[in-house]
Predict the structure of Type II secretion system F family protein.
Amino acid sequence: MYAAAVCVGAAAWLTAGRERGLTRARLLFAGGGAPEPSWWTWQRLLPVLRLRREWLCLPVAMLLAVLGESVLPLMAGAAAVPLVKRQLAARERVRARELRAEGVITLCGAVAGELRAGMQPGQALLFGTRSTDALGASEGAVVAAARFGGDVPQALREAAREPGADGLAGVSACWRVAVDSGAGLAAGLDRLEAALRAERDQREDVRTQLAGARSTIGLLALLPVVGLAMGWALGADPLRVLLHTPAGLMCLLVGGLLEAAGLWWAARIVRKGKGA
């Protein structure tokens, strides 16, 4: 494993040196033109690394495997990759939902402001869609309905099915009422914006109140790592005991199950508090 790590590092160093030499040669012999793009450059590699953060489990598992002289950490790291990927995907979905909800609030304010400035509803909606990404994949249908006299409320209801875009259903209702009864669309959008902002502030307040509980969960989850570090500090070899003795393997199995059960139970409590 040490030899493999050395070989990978040497290959990366040699490839980097070769790329620098090729870049210098192109600048010298091609009239100073821009170098041709390479498929492995860091500018292209960094976004891939950001999108594949779950694969960072493998280097950590390889380090533990080298230190403990066992393949069990590698197996655990490979098993953790899909779990971490699922967790990261869930976080990205939550973040996209929150960004879209914020975009709906911005859309309401922008459309209401343009209506007060004298724009027609369709033109105001077209202007508002340029300043936010609240419509998602349904933006084309809404823009077409607003530009060519289509059924804008129906297009907004369809767009409200996107995660986090529930507020567009309110925009659709305000639009329908304004068209049918002649009520002021700007006033309705102002009230809707205020309601959505209050809901967002409530979510932020709940998230702030649960931040302490989340920090406590993370601290308790790291206690086994602290125990291993204390064992090393005292001159013991906890990884060898855990990975190479029957009693250690039994402790590792039972401890891992208890750790997973504790994290699941704590996360369940936090979800119930957030839902309430």
Observations:
- The radius of gyration is 28 Å.
- The chain is about 80% helix and 0% strand.
- The first helix runs from residue 2 to 29.
